[in-house]
Amino acid sequence: MKTSEKIIQLLKANGEMTAKSLSVELKMTTMGVRQHLQLLEDSQDLVYQDKKAVRGRPTRYWSLTEKSNNHFENGHQELTLQLIDSVKTIFGDNGLEELIQHREKESFELYQNAMKDNRGVKSKLEILATLRTNEGYMATIEESDGIFWLMENHCPICAAAAHCQNFCRSELDLFQKLLQDVASVSREEHIIDGARRCAYKVTPF
Hints:
Elements: H1 3-14, H2 19-26, H3 30-42, E1 46-51, E2 59-64, H4 77-115, H5 121-134, E3 139-144, E4 147-152, H6 158-163, H7 166-178, E5 183-189, E6 198-204
Antiparallel strand pairs: 1-2, 3-4, 4-6, 5-6
């Protein structure tokens, strides 16, 4: 993978970062990283913001632009939107809802089968994160004070979800059903609402 792509992947997963922190992750010199950052700014994939430091000069933080989404799989969005509109036209809103429910049912069976030999919240979430990452969601797990967080740093169906938010409702329902015996699940950050990622709070019983 090219260095520029690695930078984009790191910013997608971690949010805004400095050239210094990127250099540590990439095992490069800060000057070398800055050269790549400048090229990515020129291509309009990155922007920066200078933030006041405790002392000395402001610190420059780099983040992704909307244009950078072109570097990630977005599920053939134009075709997807056309298919959604066609389903609604031919079968109505009820037909689209049946399609979403069918997708949810298939995902539930796949995920549940993968989790069946694991009882703990953490082990279940680790399996779920792996499955979701394989589907393009760049999912990670974090734990703080006994609370788990499922972070999805990319949404490969973002265009479809923005067009029909029942897809997002369905995914929250899916996670709640999968973990209903061990934890409660709520969505605290949402890409569709302008957040950098979707964040699900998982509270063990």
